[in-house]
Amino acid sequence: MTIVKLLLVYATTAVAIAAAEADAWRILYNQGVHSLAQGEPRAAVDEFAGANRLQPQNPYVLYGLSAAEFAAGQSGAATESIHKLLGLKDAPFDLLMGAGELLASRQMNSLAAEAYQAARQKAPSLIGGQKSSVFFENTLAALAARSQNDNELAQHLRSLLKTEPDQPVHYYELGLVLIKNAAFQPAFQLLQAAQIRFPKTPEILLVYAIASYLAGHANLAEQAYLELTRLQPDTDQAYFALGNFYGDEGRDGEAAAAFHRAIDVNPRNYQNHYMYAVTLARLQDWQGAAGEFQKTLALDPAHADSYYWLGKMDLQNGKNEPAKRAFERAVSLEPKHLGAWYQLGRLYQREGLTEKARVAFEKQRALRKEYDLGSVALRMP
């Protein structure tokens, strides 16, 4: 389950801008925050990107954009947004800390250390009840140790490539290490050469496709995913990966076709039905989406996200009571489902169930704190 990690902090910008423009970017910004809370990171990316076009030097917008891009699986774009944030002289301490936590949670240790180093220059005397100097010494030491382990592993794999150049697994594993550390361009170059050398190896093709996309070569990524389906026409994983690629690109019609093909190959895999349902929902084929969510639940009755989506569709149709039951079922199956608690809080509030609303929103806030590893979107007043 994808969990949106939000920390809602009220702040104001010191940038002097016209009132009309201020309203435009603030509206887009707050829409992005809302979309993240709703579990719609792709919509959030579009909204934060719109705010960024109006406020390209606003650190809050850049932070929200990076959080949405990470949540949408767009790690290459997200790291670019983080670099822009770190390049701002006026980036606030809390945002720099959030960036460090966000990156560390994704094992992007070197870039996380850069964010913490920038935050260290603006730190208060205490962080979480301890001296900030102690906090940063411990945090940076841990990141350095992880980076050293990654570097040692990468060096070991490079040595294996020299002694065993005909083993594609070494290219595959080194590519994964580079991708994990946000070295997208080196990973792409390595795996492009590996793909030429081992053109019929599915594992190489898959990681090459991932590296191509993260390095900004979407056309090459698409070619690799399509070749993967030709190599493995009888496996649903290849079509599932292709569908996810098209989904990340916003090409929902093609994503739906790929997920439908995955279902044809393996109708017993609940994930195929679920992703097909989500894509149909994005295409506003509500009836088709509802049917696929029901098929998902028939295969996996404990799939909380399907109940969550069914609840969202009931809300759109003004069916508040069925929506409430769906969200309640979702949190009974997944007590840490932040989005379902958020929707329940809103529904209880509308019905005047003040105590239930208070409990739901408290659970949501507690989950935000528990899961917040830097995926912060700061709501402007």
Task: Give a nutshell description of this structure.
This protein has 381 residues and is mainly alpha-helical. Helices cover 74% and strands 1% of the residues.
List keywords for this structure.
single chain; 381 residues; mainly alpha; Serine Threonine Protein Phosphatase 5, Tetratricopeptide repeat; 19 helices; 74% helix; disordered N terminus
The CATH superfamily title of the domain at 19-129 = Tetratricopeptide repeat domain
Q: Do you know the CATH architecture of the domain at 19-129?
A: Alpha Horseshoe
Q: For the terminal residues, how far apart are their CA atoms?
A: 30 Å
What name does CATH use for the topology of the domain at 19-129?
A: Serine Threonine Protein Phosphatase 5, Tetratricopeptide repeat
Q: Mean pLDDT, nearest integer? A: 86
- DSSP strand tally: 2
Gyration radius, in Å: 22 Å
Can you write the helix and strand succession as a string?
HHHHHHEEHHHHHHHHHHHHH
Strand content: under 5%
- Biggest β-sheet: count, sense, barrel? 2 strands, antiparallel
Q: In CATH's first tier, which class of the domain at 19-129 applies?
A: Mainly Alpha
Largest sheet strand order: 1-2
Low-confidence stretches: 1-20, 371-381
Structural class: mainly alpha
Helix content: over 70%
Describe the overall structure.
This protein has helices at 19-37, 41-54, 59-71, 75-86, 93-105, 109-120, 132-163, 168-180, 184-197, 202-214, 218-231, 236-248, 252-265, 270-282, 286-299, 304-316, 320-333, 338-350, 354-371; strands spanning 126-127, 130-131. By secondary structure, the protein is mainly alpha-helical. It has a domain at 19-129: Alpha Horseshoe (Serine Threonine Protein Phosphatase 5, Tetratricopeptide repeat).
